[in-house]
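I am writing to request your help with a piece of structural work I have in hand. The matter concerns a single protein, recorded as an amino acid sequence and a row of backbone structure tokens. Could you please explain, in whatever detail you think fit, how the structure tokens follow from the sequence? Thank you for your consideration; the sequence and its tokens are set out here:
>
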Amino acid sequence: MSTTIPPRLWIVHRPETHHALIIRRGPGKVTGFFGWNRRTNEVVVGQWMKSKVYPFRSDISPKGNYVIYFSLNGRWTSEAKGAYTAVSRYPYLKALDLWPKGDAWHGGGLFANEKEYLLNGIYIDKPLHQSGKFKVKRGVLSSPVRSGEDPGIYFPKLLRDGWAFNETRKEGKDTIHHFTKAVNKRLTLEKSFHVSLNSPVGKGVYYESHKIKGLEGPTLNTIGLENLDAYRSHLFWTNAGQLFMARFKHDQVSTPVLVHDFNNYEFSAIPAPY
């Protein structure tokens, strides 16, 4: 009997804006961008493409107007050289700036502000498209872990957004990097970033698990929680292709509320409005 694997979800966000980007992958490398308004909980479809996006190398601008992401489609003889970094308008994929990379080493970037971004790594080729809207810096950020892959850009992003790096541990053949974030005086989120060649079904080489320290009374089941973080007085996370939120106060967390179910979507060719 076959088991349907739910789509993988990642939330690209930052504390300064109520806009968040949901990246949905599946089946295969089909990727969809969705916009999530964290004030109203409205979720809208952005765009789809048949290419892999690396969510841990992606970022959203401080006001939520733009997205930077790294994509690989393997078309090595194309103008984009099979792997590239793009900057787009939220929550779409169509590139305003497009930087051919040609490999999957480094790539992606982080926004310094609404008009400036860091292009992660060394880019030999000139941009295929450049809008002129942004000041661009190039380089590699200081990180708790030296890496040209996801941790090299994702870990500096976590530190920027209020997470603290604690330690790196080896568990068998796996490496696990531990981070924490205090959301109030009693509750602390614990994040474990796994690097594994024996990942659970439906996970990649890089995946996360989470716990909540300090809960009293009936505890929230944190098994399977992905993308766990806080925005104002709410926790949010994904699980089995669904997005959830719950209000927290002191050491209590309310009953989780389903915000959106991403399971029953299919690829659709949607033009960007620009």
Notes: The first strand starts at residue 8 and ends at 12. The helical segments are 150-160. Residues 150-160 form the longest helix (11 residues).
